[in-house]
Design goal:
Distance between the termini: 40 Å
Radius of gyration: 22 Å
CATH superfamily of one domain: Alpha/Beta hydrolase fold, catalytic domain
CATH class of one domain: Alpha Beta
CATH topology of one domain: Rossmann fold
Structural class: alpha/beta
């Protein structure tokens, strides 16, 4: 395929085309964001990134200048070594350092997993095989000791996660592998053969992604409340003795008695919603965790500035709390059993993470998400024009800080992003790509789609996944040729119209040889 490099008009920049970072960087700071590269070099691609790196040879990764005593530094004295983190084979290993976060004796950010979960009482299920305002943090109100705690409903699939059914005790050391990791081999070495086993394997994969790439997503907060007025839903979350609030804007909602399906759009999203007859929910991720500065925002006001979470898993936590509040606020007029999530570019990465980590979301639509989203790291490393991990891990505070340690050792990475997109299965996934922007890594995105579809096939859900790409449009504009696919997915998965035709993988000039990337076979799960 003939690739093109685009020169970005200033008018498009002013309209909001940027992948983000800290716009207030000083002259001594490395130029790593889309906007900086465009302003300084006139283009946004691998050539401009390489030019920036050559001018800043001392800033190869975010980890390069970390203070070893900084709690955010994964190699500092307060943070034992990740069992899957690359190590120098010549370095002596301290036998007293635990090998996984679950075994660590050193102080770690508290997890909310110990809190008894309160699950939805709804009988609805997915087909799993078995402009916002914020308020300041305030002390939590003490709850009555007589308040009844409702245990989770056994076997219910309409819930955020399944960690209560499938606890992950520890994460083993996983060896180096130039190929994509096997999604169908559990931590104990056993093979996944049933859909029920996939549910638990999915929890292992989520734990691994949290440990290696994203940071921990706190589960089961003590209390979530919602209040709806004038098209605004206020979400109030109490956990760890603290309370925060933020709001989302809802447009086109139904009523309490006739709720409507909805799509949660990061900053509104970039899709064409016309004619879809759905509600839209605009989620501002900066209300939860601004990406420009690690450890700041409402999420960290509860869980602490040293929490392992990068911005994207904090955003996912925020989306889950929106869904919690919607469940408790029927007057908002939203059908919580028919929800989608979307975003574009860096927010497409966020939408992919949010959709993967909350099983209540019926339809996940990452748009032009590139590296760190619906694209795999190993393939991107072989594409000189795609954004590499070493750049994506430091462009903003999207990931946990230790991910940069894998920048030049991709084969040591125990994860890849067919794991992330595969977590959506067997729910619906529509990945939209743009062939005109080489920095997005068209080949790596296609490779990720071809490995992801194997997970959907195993679950008998191949028709629930489409990877589609279009050309000749600006980044994060919605091309008309994608409207039919969007409409079909919305009708099928948000309105239960089974007659809609879905399920395809578009190559359009790129290729994928499974033997080069997969040393595992796809089972038919029973």
């Amino acid at each position: 395929m003939k690739k093109r490099k685009w020169i970005i008009p200033v008018a498009i920049v002013a309209a909001g085309f940027w992948a983000c970072g800290d716009d207030n960087n000083t002259a001594s700071t490395e130029c790593v964001t889309e906007q900086c590269l465009i302003d300084k070099y006139g283009e946004f691609n691998a050539d401009s990134a390489n030019a920036a790196n050559q001018q800043n040879p001392g800033n190869d990764s975010a980890a390069a200048n970390q203070n070893p005593d900084d709690p955010n530094n994964p190699l500092g004295q307060n943070n034992p070594q990740d069992p899957n983190e690359p190590q120098d084979p010549n370095d002596p290993q301290d036998p007293n350092i635990p090998t996984s976060s679950s075994e660590a004796g050193a102080q770690q950010p508290e997890s909310s997993d110990s809190n008894p979960p309160v699950e939805s009482s709804s009988s609805h299920h997915h087909h799993f095989g078995s402009s916002s305002s914020v308020s300041d943090v305030k002390p939590a109100e003490s709850s009555s000791s007589e308040e009844e705690v409702i245990p989770p409903t056994p076997g219910s699939d309409f819930k955020e996660h399944f960690r209560d059914e499938c606890p992950v005790a520890s994460i083993p050391k996983i060896g180096s592998n130039p190929k994509l990791p096997d999604p169908f081999t559990a931590f104990d070495g056993s093979k996944v053969t049933t859909k029920a086993q996939w549910k638990c394997r999915r929890e292992e994969i989520s734990a691994l992604l949290e440990e290696v790439e994203l940071g921990e997503k706190p589960r089961n907060p003590e209390k979530v409340e919602g209040s709806y007025s004038g098209g605004s839903l206020k979400v109030t979350v109490t956990d760890k003795g603290k309370t925060i609030s933020f709001s989302v804007k809802i447009s086109g909602a139904g009523t309490k008695d006739a709720p409507k399906p909805a799509i949660i759009g990061f900053s509104g999203g970039s899709l064409d919603y016309s004619g879809l007859n759905i509600a839209t929910i605009s989620f501002n991720p900066d209300d939860v965790a601004p990406e420009a500065t690690r450890g700041k925002g409402r999420f960290y006001d509860i869980y602490g500035s040293n929490h392992s979470a990068g911005a994207m898993i904090a955003w996912a936590w925020g989306v889950s709390r929106v869904i919690d509040a919607l469940e408790k606020t029927p007057e908002a007029g939203i059908d919580v059993h028919h929800l989608g999530v979307t975003g574009c570019s860096r927010l497409g990465k966020g939408a992919a993470v949010a959709g993967a980590f909350d099983a209540r979301i019926a339809l996940v639509i990452p748009q032009e998400s590139g590296s760190g989203g619906a694209s795999n790291w190993r393939s991107a490393a072989k594409d000189s024009e795609a954004q590499p991990l070493s750049h994506a891990c430091q462009e903003a505070a999207w990931f946990r800080s230790s991910l940069c340690n894998y920048g030049n050792r991709i084969n040591d990475l125990p994860t890849d992003h067919h794991y992330l997109t595969g977590m959506v299965a067997p729910r619906a996934l529509l990945v939209l790509d743009n062939t005109g922007w080489v920095w997005l890594g068209e080949g790596a995105s296609y490779a990720n789609a071809m490995s992801t579809v194997e997970i959907f096939k195993a679950l008998g859900a191949e028709k629930d996944f489409t990877y589609s790409k279009a050309a000749n449009h600006m980044h994060c504009s919605f091309p008309a040729e994608n409207k039919d696919e969007l409409t079909a997915f919305v009708k099928k998965y948000l309105f239960d119209d089974a007659s809609q035709n879905t399920g395809k993988i578009e190559a359009k000039g790129v290729s994928y040889n499974a033997a080069d990337w997969q040393d595992w076979t796809t089972p038919t799960l029973k």
